[in-house]
Structures are given as C-alpha cells and as structure tokens.
Amino acid sequence: MAAASPSNPKANYHIRSISLPSKPHPLFQQCEDYLLRIIASSDATFSSSSAISNKLSGLLDLHNCVNDLFQLPLTQEAFVRERNEKWVDELLDSSLRLLDVCTAAKDALIHTKECAREIQSTMRRRRGGQTGFTNEVKKYFASRKVVKKAICKALVTLKSFEKKSMPSFSSSNKDTVAVALVSVLREVEAVSLTVFESLLSFISGSKAQSKMRGWSFVSKLMLNKRVACDEEKSEVNEFADVDAALSCLVGQETSKSDNISCSNNVQSDLQQLESCSQDLEEGLECLFRRLIKNRVSLLNTLSN
C-alpha cells in the first residue's frame, strides 16, 4: 500500500518544489513531500525530545515511502537494468551506513536509560545512604562518559559518510527512472544522516544541534523568519538536565531541607529522562526495522 501523503509544512514557510528530475510516478513526489516536511521541522531554533521524536517519525514516514517506491515494477526494472552501476553499490553501502548509525543511537539510549534507572532505584529505596547514592552517581557518570565517547566516534564516522557518499552518488546514463531514483535516494540519505546527527548530539547533552545542509536542492528552499514566539522557545534537553542536576546534588554541601528538595528535583528529572528515552527508543526501533526491510527488499530485487 502506498504511503499517505504528508501534511503541508508549517504555514510560515514558503517552499518551492525540490528541483529533482521529472518524476515517473506519484510516489517520487510523495518522497519529496516527506523530505520537505523534515527540512521544515529541522529549521527550528530550539530543540527538545518531542522535536527529535517528530523528526524520527517523519523519517519513518519517508522510509516507508521509499519502501513503496522499491515495490513499483518500473523501479524494480530500473534496479535490474542498473544492477552493475556504481550507484547501486553505493545505495547498498548507504543502507548499511544508516543501520550502523541507528544502532549506535539505540545503544546510547539504552545504556543511559539503564543507568538512570539504577539511580532511581537507589533513591527510592535509600540503599546505602548518601554513600550508596554517590557511588551510583559515579557509575552513571562513568557510563555517560562511555556513551559520549561512543557518540563522538559515531559523529566523526557520520561526517565521513556525508563527505564520501554524496558527491559520487549519481547515475552514469540517461535512464529517466534511474536518474529520478538516484536523485531522491541521495536526498533521503542526506536527510537521514542529518536527523541521526541531531539525535546523537541530543543524547550526548550537546546544546548545538545540526541543521539541514549540503543538499543539492537547498537553494530551492525559501524560508521566512520564525515568528517571535518560536524564537523565544528555549532548548530542553533531558539528558543535559539530569547530568547537571546530579552534578549539583553530589557536588555541593546543602542543608537537609535543601537536599530533600534537590533530591525531589533529581527524581523528577530522571523520570522525564526515562520517559523521553523510551519514546526515542521506540521511534528508533520502528525506524531500524523499516531500514532492514528496505535493505532486504532491495537485495531481493537485485538478486532476481
């Protein structure tokens, strides 16, 4: 079944059509619409777990549409005709790259969430008093250090993906279906990598979020200034909030009443972290399964 066409981007955006080659089927236009929606959502001047979740949801819609595209007879015929072309090999490599970075993000989320739960359990049961709590916090920060190191490595690798894949991702002939495929799939990979970059930066607690960039059609995208209320929104990062709250709680001498208040705030932050981690993890899991299915579909087509 073909993916439903997405709703239009926000009203305060004026977006001209992506300058892709002529579209041999309406599904190419639907993929373009999903791309534009993700671009619009990624121009926000603030970031939050809900904003990241929306990006992942949009990315899932996009890859669902790509799967529908792969099922078209004209698309499958083009893949068979072009199976020996370099761009087909690059597309297969691209599918692995997306799976790798998606796995890295899932691992970072799961690792952080498990350590946060340990701290919550210690605080609820008051095991080991302040010493026991401090030890759990030390474990949490040691875990976060490992997670941030893994994220840093993944981001460096992701940057190399962007530089390596995009320039050479082109078809060498005049097959109109192949040219349209190459164009849209190149943009799909670029958007996907940028969303994953935003997600990884968010999990690390980084304030700076990546913006959509480096695409062939960016010059075709005209964006108005954000309305004042959007500009006033501040970034909310549950990972950074918990890091800061725990550092404050174990690093300062406070009165008993202040300590109780800080503990309650930390517990609230931990609950919010667990909730947002769960939402992001579920979104990533759905996306991961879709990426696998798309790769399998493509391999099956090329093997026929």
Description:
The protein has 304 residues and is mostly helical. The protein contains 9 helices and 2 strands; from the N terminus they run E-H-H-H-H-H-H-E-H-H-H. It has a two-stranded antiparallel ribbon. Helix 8 packs antiparallel against helix 9 (256-303). The radius of gyration is 22 Å and the shape is elongated. The two termini are 22 Å apart. Mean pLDDT is 78; it is low at 1-18 and 212-233.
At a glance:
It contains nine helices and two strands.
| Gross morphology | elongated
What is the average per-residue confidence, as pLDDT, rounded to a whole number?
78
- Ends distance: 22 Å
Largest sheet: 2 strands, antiparallel
Trace the largest sheet across and list its strands: 1-2
Helix content: over 70%
Beta fraction of the residues? under 5%
The number of distinct β-strands equals 2
Which H/E pattern describes the elements?
A: EHHHHHHEHHH
Lay out the secondary structure:
Blueprint: E1 13-15, H1 26-41, H2 49-71, H3 73-81, H4 86-125, H5 129-165, H6 176-203, E2 221-223, H7 228-231, H8 238-251, H9 256-303
Antiparallel strand pairs: 1-2
Helix pairs in contact: 1-2, 1-6, 2-6, 2-9, 4-5, 4-6, 4-9, 5-6, 8-9
